[in-house]
Amino acid sequence: MGYLKLLRYSVALDCFKSALLDPQASINSESLNGFLDKCKKLEFLSRTGTFDISEWVVNGFRGKSPELAEYIGAVEIKKSEISGRGLFATKNIDCGTLLLVTKAIATERGILPQSNNDDLAENAKLVMWKDLINKVLKSAIQCRKTHHLICTLSMGEDEDALQVPDISLYRPEAEESSFSDEKLDMGKILSILDVNSLVEDAISAKVLGKNSDYHGVGLWVLASFINHSCNPNARRLHIGDYLIVHASRDVKAGEEITFAYFDMLFATEQSEGNGEDLGFSV
Predict the structure, then answer these.
(1) Is residue 216 part of a domain?
(2) Which of 1, 133, 158, 255 has the most other CB atoms within 10 Å of its CB?
(3) Which residue numbers delimit the SET domain (predicted)?
(4) In-domain check, residue 220
């Protein structure tokens, strides 16, 4: 089960196959077959990206969220002319194509107080932020691969000096033994979280299912490489702890994948307000 929780689908599949052949196995064959079927499904999804959530959507998002697996499509990490590093298409991509599915290192969700007192909402957000920090730190301590991947993210300074990691590091099959056992730097983790954490109900994003009623924040490592642009080509969906990125228009090979700064379908007054908040002259 440990490999499955770490999203190591292929390794988990091999382990369950071996256990099924072991007469001394402590888990009964029915349970093992159940885990085998689950591993096969997740390994297939991770390899092909053929996700189908249509039935869940048609049913009004009722019931348990569909099972998802991490998937990386035709993208790579390169130096960006926008800022630091970015995610780029490795081939021509049609509008609507799935680009990636990634699970959060950690998330924190809550219902913010409905009040005219802004301090109540801010205090609630601070509590959520503290809880998110603790969850991320716990994940980093428990798994050196997780710790290493978090540390590949930007702290918001010296962007030009940052190394460009190979996309293979972020694939589920990446071996944990290939990651160095680094000492945890609390200050570095906090800076990384401050720069890279994402709010679920944000621009260019949609939350599906029961979490749509909550204010959510989390850290999705690979999605953190996606910059923002005035001419965006991608949008994100949130289902459970998974972030799903689709192309929102046709994308050419070598083009950077970007999210919108703000929703162009908003009323003019609201768009202008968003632009001013981001430092644009409108």
Answers:
(1) yes
(2) 133
(3) 73-262
(4) yes
Residues 146 and 182 in one domain: yes
User: Is it the case that residue 66 has pLDDT exceeding 70?
Assistant: yes
pLDDT digits (tens, 9 = 90+) for 198-257: 998 776 678 888 777 788 999 999 999 999 999 999 999 999 999 999 999 999 999 999
Determine the residue type at 227.
N
Whether residue 282 lies inside any domain: the answer is no
Tens digit of pLDDT for each residue in 32-53? 677 778 888 888 899 999 999 9
Could you tell me the CATH number of the domain that includes residue 159?
Answer: 2.170.270.10
Whole-Å CA distances, 246 to 71, 98, 163, 230, 238: 12, 5, 26, 17, 12
The structural domain count of the chain equals: 2
Q: How far is residue 280 from each of residues 1, 40, 198, measured CA to CA in Å?
A: 49, 49, 21
Cα separation, 111 vs 213, in Å, equals 7
Q: What is the pTM of this model?
A: 0.83
pLDDT at 136 over 90: yes
As beta bridge partners, residue 258 has 227
122 and 36, same structural domain?
A: no
Structural domain of residue 215, as residue ranges? 68-277
